[in-house]
């Protein structure tokens, strides 16, 4: 498996604090909004919600990855992907600074998707309360388009993945990384939430991402030169 997939997974896993802040309330609503006699059957709801969310991530990754690969092939300027990889490396460095809580500028990227989200949010709200686990699928798919700096940063890696399939794979890996945080808040796993928010865990993960971003940027610069 390409190292980019592992990096995308790590971004999702270690962006837990951001995930809990952005989507934690939504994940909790998936279980709190269900009928009282079904509280013990929260897991099918959480599974379907997260499956829908990951599906949207994969669709976005496929669109971005396919579009950029197609443009590079059509123009005959395949080295454009190398330049984009340098941009993606820069985004990962910024993301590492964000996860390590050294710089919070990545959150400004979330403004890019506000227009689309204003159209989708009412549709998502109209699905509550969820009547069945299957109703959580479209609910999760809509919430997958919530403006998120982590998602947009990872999409920069999908853009340089080389195609629609690999772009979807990068975003799938990212989505898998977010699952522990989302399941923790929905399933009331307090110990897991505490670990995901641990200051030292976040700093160590940020340093790993920072090192990978610097290494990737160095390789891209060498290829350009």
Automatic annotation (TrEMBL):
Keywords, sorted A to Z: Membrane, Transmembrane, Transmembrane helix
Bilayer-spanning residue ranges: 6-33, 54-74, 80-99, 134-152, 164-188, 200-221
Pfam families assigned: DsbD_2 (PF13386)
Chain segments annotated as coiled-coil in the UniProt record: none
Taxonomic classification: Bacteria, Pseudomonadati, Pseudomonadota, Gammaproteobacteria, Vibrionales
Protein name, UniProt field: Cytochrome biogenesis protein
InterPro entries according to UniProt: UreH-like_TM_dom
Start and end residues of each Urease accessory protein UreH-like transmembrane domain: 7-214
